Amino acid sequence: MPNDIQPHNLPAEVLRVDEGLVCGDDQPYFPAQLGELEVALIDDRGRRYYKVTPRSRRIVTEWIAVTGEATSDHLRFRWDGDDLIVIDDAKLVDDEDPTSGPAVERIRPDADDRYTFQTWEWHVHDAAEHRDDTTRAALALLATDDPSQIDTMIRYLVENTYPAPDPQTLRDIRAQHRTLGDFPAAPAADSDSEEADDE
Fold first, then answer.
1. Cis (ω within 30 of 0) for the bond into 163?
2. What angle, 0 to 180 degrees and rounded to 10, lies between the N-to-C axes of helices 150-160 and 133-143?
3. pTM of the model as a whole
4. Engineering a disulfide at 14: which of 10, 28, 29, 84 sits with its beta carbon 3.0 to 4.6 angstroms away?
């Protein structure tokens, strides 16, 4: 395979060499380091389906959070410096006490500045799937950590998410994530890093 062509039939400027594509149910694909694949299911035709715990870069994690909040009726996301706070309104901290409030998880970047959603289920990219121009353009932006082309990313999310979120809702959520806001208490970070303003 030539050096400028990556797995998934995507050129190097669209997908980094050390990354693959993953998605959640009815969600768009996002690039991430895949780690070790585990066989989750073998169907009656012998096809293997894998589960994976991907590690994503900051810009990718931001768009995962925007998509997740736009398509979920119980998940909210907030940034606290470099940490991502995930608030699950449907899952109480203490199932016995309904007044305990939502479950709050703090996701810190690892030593390589990558984020892992440990409790989420991810699917590995199907190489046979067609990659249109919108997808290629959005993945290219993510490959270069370019946060500036918001319209391209919004179009990609709308075209590849089911049901399709409202474009303005995606913009509003992204804007909200980029400002400091109040969120339920989570374990304090031992870090003094600050969120980079890349707009």
1. yes
2. 130
3. 0.76
4. 10
Q: Phi/psi zone of residue 73: left (φ > 0), alpha (ψ -120 to 50 degrees), beta? A: alpha
Model confidence pLDDT, tens digit, residues 62-100: 999 999 999 998 899 999 999 999 998 876 555 566 666
Structure tokens at 170: 């995606």
Contacts of 48 (CB under 8 A, 6+ apart): 39, 41, 42
Residues 6+ away with beta carbon under 8 Å from 23: 29, 30, 122, 123, 125
Both tokens of 107, joined, read: 């996701």
Residues 112-132 have pLDDT tens digits of 999 998 878 887 776 555 578
Question: Per-domain residue ranges for the chain?
Answer: 5-177
